[in-house]
Design a protein that fits this description.
heterodimer; A: 164 residues; mainly alpha; 0% strand; B: 184 residues; globular
């Protein structure tokens, strides 16, 4: 988190310094559009983060580990896709769940589907960031586009591992 | 985006919606998990917010400056609807190397979309950032999942952002009255 903050601020300062030296007229429109970005976020983002936190707290976590058997086949991949999309929280919450799923005997393809679905959907991230920042139309559109991605990754993994 | 509806910039329906969700989630957490988990979650969310505010502000500044420093026609040429497969590949590469959490990358997508990047490039960027993110691979997957699974996942994910971007461009034509990017 600190590394991310330092990285973005270094980039920001470099850009502002560049503008100050070569294009001072850019400051005013830049700050106006920055305020334009921030204003709608000011109330939405804290509430969205709070909502995502609470919903993450009430979702059952250990439940996921029980369901994905090794020979669950394409049904297991489909189930892993849905469950992966619903996994609450960031990597600190998700990786322990995924590790317990692997230890419980989930197949490689199912694990890949689970991880990929969590990566592209991350329900928690959609609620906290994507929806408030990009709007529900974009969210629905991206969700629709991405439905096939976890199964594609899982099938490629199954081919790679020689299961197909 | 042309023609943005002018409602009150801070208080609107979205705020009411997220407020209701937060309230309902809070009540359900207290009810199902008890006051301790409720307080932990409340404090955890506050902590997260305090940590991400400086990052979001910086990312928005980058977006604001990018918008006024980089000419719109150039963004449109590199990442717009007519940028072809080169635009998709560029967006995928940018997504894979963007470090850090969602706060920065979503803010950058807002800036890119307002500067002329099309929805295909935005979807490709976000998909690449989420499935190829090299930062997460090194920090989490290699140590926790081991190199075999981590690298397998990376390799099978390489085509995904490109598939998503091409599908987005194909599909958005059919949905044009509905314009998925209208709120950006």
């Amino acid at each position: 988190m600190l590394a991310a903050a330092i990285t973005v601020w270094v980039i920001t300062i470099a850009i502002v310094a560049y503008a100050a030296k070569f294009k001072p007229a850019a400051h005013r429109p830049a700050l106006i559009s920055t305020l334009d970005f921030i204003k709608p976020m000011a109330a939405r983002l804290p509430l969205a983060i709070l909502a995502a936190g609470f919903l993450g707290a009430i979702l059952p976590r250990d439940f996921v580990a029980l369901i994905l058997g090794q020979d669950s086949g394409f049904a297991g991949i489909a189930l892993a896709t849905v469950l992966g999309g619903l996994l609450p929280g960031g990597p600190m919450v998700t990786f322990p769940v995924v590790i317990s799923v692997i230890q419980a005997g989930a197949g490689t393809a199912q694990t890949i589907a689970l991880l990929t679905a969590w990566s592209v959907y991350a329900f928690h991230r959609i609620l906290a960031f994507e929806w408030p920042m990009l709007g529900w139309r974009f969210v629905l559109f991206r969700m629709l586009i991405s439905i096939a991605l976890p199964p594609i990754a899982a099938l490629l993994a199954a081919i790679w591992a020689g299961h197909i | 985006m042309p023609e943005r509806r002018r409602v009150h910039p801070i208080l609107n329906g979205q705020v009411a919606l997220f407020g209701t969700l937060a309230l309902a989630g809070g009540i359900a957490t207290w009810w199902l998990r008890g006051p301790d988990v409720f307080l932990d979650t409340l404090l955890g969310s506050g902590e997260l917010l305090v940590m991400i505010i400086p990052i979001v502000v910086a990312a928005m500044l980058i977006g604001g400056y990018a918008q006024s420093l980089v000419p719109q026609d150039r963004v449109a040429r590199w990442l717009g609807a007519k940028s072809g497969i080169r635009g998709i590949l560029l967006a995928a590469g940018a997504g894979a190397i963007t470090p850090g959490g969602p706060f920065a990358s979503f803010a950058l997508v807002v800036a890119l979309a307002r500067s002329g990047a099309d929805i295909g490039a935005c979807v490709t960027y976000l998909t690449a950032w989420s499935v190829l993110g090299l930062h997460r691979l090194v920090q989490w997957e290699l140590p926790l999942l081991g190199p075999d699974l981590a690298i397998l996942r990376l390799v099978v994910s390489i085509p995904l952002p490109i598939i998503a971007g091409i599908a987005a461009r194909a599909l958005v034509r059919w949905l044009s009255p509905w314009t998925p990017g209208r709120d950006i």
